[in-house]
Automatic annotation (TrEMBL):
It is a multi-pass membrane protein. It comes from Anser brachyrhynchus. Keywords: Disulfide bond, G-protein coupled receptor, Glycoprotein, Membrane, Receptor, Transducer, Transmembrane, Transmembrane helix. It is found in: Membrane. The keyword Transmembrane applies. The gene is CMKLR2. This is Chemerin chemokine-like receptor 2.
Length: 212
């Protein structure tokens, strides 16, 4: 059976009625996750805002302050979008914010992840060059070069995270619950799942396409 046949195949299950109903309460793991996300938001917004204020407006510009300023900006943008995901989990993975915020929320998460990794890498590399190669550091370790590298990092992170703006989509599933997911295939505006097992098949299909 080809994959196209698999997509067009019909599945029928005779499941008990209680298995077709979504869970009305969050699991302990989800509640713990919500607690961590909430703490990260409450501490991350003012914390990163203070770092941005001092390094961007109060302290003298240097190579080190520019690296940490960009890192703080990446984290600040990410924590600003955390309430969307907190609400998504708290509502039983129902996305009420529409398609474009679904795309933007996922894009910001990827942008932060790659930008943070790149900036942390360059911070480590910068310290290595400063200690081990002082002559090279004195010649090329300048604010101008740091700004150019920072721009390249932001553009690279945006390009890598860019597919989220295209593939992320929303779909209405069981009991009018809207999910935010990776749509690698042209599904209809409404995906009607009549059982939990069919929802698993949908998830496996999306995963298969992602890995293919």
């Amino acid at each position: 059976m080809t994959f196209e046949d698999f997509e067009n195949y019909s599945y029928f299950y005779d499941l008990p009625e209680e298995e077709e109903s979504p869970q009305s309460t969050l699991s302990i793991a989800h509640m713990i996750s919500l607690s961590f996300y909430s703490v990260a938001f409450l501490l991350g917004v003012p914390g990163n805002a203070i770092v941005i204020w001092f390094m961007g407006f109060k302290w003298d510009k240097s190579v080190s302050t520019l690296w940490f300023l960009n890192l703080a900006i990446a984290d600040f943008i990410f924590v600003l979008f955390l309430p969307l995901y907190i609400t998504y989990v708290a509502m039983g993975f129902h996305w009420p914010f529409g398609k474009w915020l679904c795309k933007m929320n996922s894009f910001i998460a990827l942008l932060n992840m790659f930008a943070s990794v790149f900036f942390l890498t360059f911070i480590s590399l910068d310290r290595y060059i400063r200690l081990v190669h002082p002559v090279f550091s004195y010649k090329y370790r300048t604010i101008r070069n740091t700004l150019i590298l920072s721009g390249i990092i932001w553009i690279s992170a945006a390009v890598i995270g860019g597919p989220a703006l295209y593939f992320r989509d929303t779909a209405t599933v069981l009991n009018n619950v809207t999910i935010c997911y990776n749509n690698f295939h042209v599904f209809g505006g409404v995906v009607d799942f009549t059982s939990a097992s069919q929802m698993c098949i949908f998830a496996n299909t999306v995963l298969y396409k992602q890995l293919a």
